[in-house]
Amino acid sequence: MTSLAPWEIWLVMGLAGAGTLALRYSFIGLLKRSADEIPDLARRALRLIPAAVLAALITPSLTHPDLIFDPWTERMLAGIVAAVVAWRTKNVLVTIAVGMATLWLLQAIS
Amino acid sequence: MRRQNFRAGVLTIAPILIGVVPFGIIAGVAAVESGLSSLQAIVFSPVVFAGASQLAAYELIGRDAAVVVIVATVVVINSRFVMYSASLAPHFVSATTPQKLATSYLLTDQAFAVWIIRYGREDESTELKLAYYFGAALALFVTWQSSTIVGVVLGSGIPPEWSLDFAIPLVFLALLFPAITDRATSVAAIVGGLTAVVAQPLAYNLGLPLAAVVGIATGLIAESRR
């Protein structure tokens, strides 16, 4: 339970909300004419963003800080199974179902 | 045509929403557990509207972190939206300012992923691209807000043994593979994923933006060497 005052929580909320909207609006709001304003290097980099960011969002949820000593967490194994399913089917529902079922199974046996 | 595209956007994001529901419920529960009032917990979600950063903020609020630290953490985690914004911007140059503001406010990992998978290859008029975007983004918005409210109401009633938070990486996993189309995107994903693990101990979740930059840079090098 927090000991932050209610006004501090409202302040966090307001600043976090304004900051997040500014980040989202950055290029959408400021780009005036056409895509030609974006240099070639930036355009090539933009194409790679989804792959790099999605992968970076996933991996820390599969490991824990002692990665080197104990890489085979239940989540890592369930994640690998789900990754194979995601790769073969490209289906979100099936990936979630198989991934969750595998994790529950692993947790049940351990 | 516009209505058709809006519907197509809703339908394409629909399977992803099933993974968003537990995430939203978890966020609502976490907000209440960290000590926010029900009103604060419910209002927080539409004000910030970015799940991972909301979870980080609730955790820091629970630990009595300084206001500056909490806000900075949210901004760092959400810095990836600048990259999405840059990616969408050229498509929406001719949109009106209210449309641009709405597009920005509704920008999420999932809406972006769904949208870019379609329009990374083909092109349509701004109006139709916006309709598809708003279909996907609004469906996600409504789902997220209602599931966080459910989480706030449930409070801490959900047993942690269910591991429902694991649905979050599973959603991202299902979105990742369609995004990997060639050598450069493969390299970006592998290097980004590995860097995120190694950089995890970094304070303020700086590991995520760092991993994205390293992954993209390595992908660019791999591309230019071909």
What does this structure look like?
- The complex is a heterodimer of chains A (110) and B (226).
- Chain A is mainly alpha-helical.
- Helices cover 75% and strands 0% of the residues of chain A.
- Chain A is extended.
- The two termini of chain A are 32 Å apart.
- In chain B, helix 1 (2-34) packs parallel to helix 3 and helix 7 packs parallel to helix 9 (167-179).
- Chain B is mainly α and 226 residues long.
- Chain B has 11 helices and no strands.
- Chain B starts with a helix and ends with a helix.
Distance between the termini of chain A: 32 Å
Structural class of chain A: mainly alpha
* Helix amount of chain A: over 70%
Strand % of chain A is under 5%
Order of helices and strands of chain A: HHHH
Poorly predicted ranges of chain B (pLDDT <50, ≥5 residues)?
Answer: none
Mean pLDDT of chain B: 88
Quickly give the structural class of chain B.
mainly alpha
Radius of gyration of chain A: 21 Å
Q: Can you give keywords for this protein?
A:
heterodimer; A: mainly alpha; 75% helix; B: 226 residues; mainly alpha
Quick overview:
The complex is a heterodimer of chains A (110) and B (226). Chain A has 110 residues and is an all-alpha fold.
What's the structural blueprint in terms of helices and strands?
The complex is a heterodimer of chains A (110) and B (226).
Chain A: H1 6-30, H2 40-62, H3 74-89, H4 92-109
Chain B: H1 2-34, H2 38-48, H3 51-62, H4 67-77, H5 80-88, H6 97-105, H7 109-119, H8 126-154, H9 167-179, H10 183-198, H11 207-224
Helix pairs in contact in B: 1-3, 1-7, 1-8, 1-9, 2-8, 3-4, 7-8, 7-9, 10-11
